[in-house]
Amino acid sequence: MCRPLIRKSTVFFVDHGSARGLKQILLLYLRSNTSDVMLQEPGLSPYDLQFNLLGFPVRVAWGFWIVAAVFGWGTSDTLDFVYASQNLDSPGAPILLMVWISVMFVSILVHELGHSLAMRYYGIHSRIVLYHFGGLAIPDSFASWGGARQRRVGPKEQIVISAAGPLLQLLLGLGALGIAVRSGFLLPETRLFDAILGTDMSAGLKWAGSASVTMLLSALVFTSVFWAILNLAPILPLDGGNITRSALQLSQVSQPIRAAHMVSVVAGGLIGLYFLSRGSPMAGIMFLIFAVNNWQAMQSGWGGY
User: Fold this and answer.
1) pTM: predicted TM-score of the whole model, two decimal places
2) 129-174 pLDDT, tens per residue?
3) Which terminus of the chain has fewer CB atoms gathered within 10 Å of its CB, N or C?
């Protein structure tokens, strides 16, 4: 039986590490339940930011801001240097970092809001937590027993809930990309799209007059498009893994949960090795950890069949 206790969603995939210590990190994981520790909801702290959004309780753990700053500093410093070298306006790397952090906060919040709105449609109360490893939309209870009876949460509904987060986040990122292109602004991501898709989207585009504008649009595209796509990888506990699991249950394949773990092992291993080969050791390690975690779950029979 599927256990949709936490709608795991947005996960940070920016790489800011080095290959040093790769063996030690993997050994540490094998000796402990590192993946579970990273993915579970952090404890309450007096330093957490708490508010309500559209009726959903939202908590931002203090560690979220620290990790966001670590991830964004390199990009902020580089963009400030590019603008300074071309005598263009830049408010400085610290201000650009504040823009990055704000955008990442909005992007991940939108992602989790997509999950929560889908759960609300099926009569489930939920809350949102942003923390050091991304975001969680956590179901608390059915809004009403009548709603629970009318809208049974099975594999089809799980697919909708899992897909809602990254799809809403993708719309946000693609909207930012459309604004940039329509305004004639060059972004690092437009060049990346050209390289991947073989297009000439960057042709005729120029840097925006202010580095703050470039950072705003670039961070929206990067965090909302690329992170959403990676979260759709068919790897448990990511959204794509949950979708794969539900699809296998609908297909009535023998032992669907075990099959979902098998897919996760293969996909996690391949993506992890790809990132390692591209010089992104931390992202590579993360996906390899996902692969190992799913292998262990498959061997132990955790999660049912």
Assistant:
1) 0.83
2) 999 888 999 988 654 444 444 456 789 999 999 999 999 999 999 9
3) N
Peptide bond just before 234 cis, omega within 30 deg:
no
Q: Which residues of 12-29 are buried (b: 16+ CB within 10 A; e: fewer)?
A: bbbbbbeeeebeebeeeb
Count the residues in the chain: 305
Confidence of residue 240 (pLDDT cuts 50, 70, 90): very high
CA distance 232 to 165: 10
* Beta carbons within 10 angstroms of residue 285's beta carbon: 21
Phi-psi region of 228 (alpha: psi -120 to 50; beta: other; left: phi over 0): alpha
Q: CA dist 155 to 13, 162, 236, 245, 247, Å?
A: 27, 10, 15, 8, 7
Tokens of 87: 């005598």
pLDDT of residue 38: 57
* Longest alpha-carbon distance in the chain: 63
> Rounded to an integer, what distance in angstroms lies between the CA atom of residue 120 and that of residue 1?
22
Give the whole-angstrom CA distance, residue 257 versus residue 242.
Answer: 10
Contact predicate 275/249, CB 8 Å: no
Residue 201, H or E segment: none
Q: How sure is the predictor about 25, in pLDDT bands with cuts at 50, 70 and 90?
A: very low
What is the C-alpha separation between 136 and 57, in angstroms, rounded?
Answer: 12
Location of structure tokens 């955790």:
302
35-70: pLDDT as tens digits: 455 567 888 889 999 999 999 999 999 999 999 999
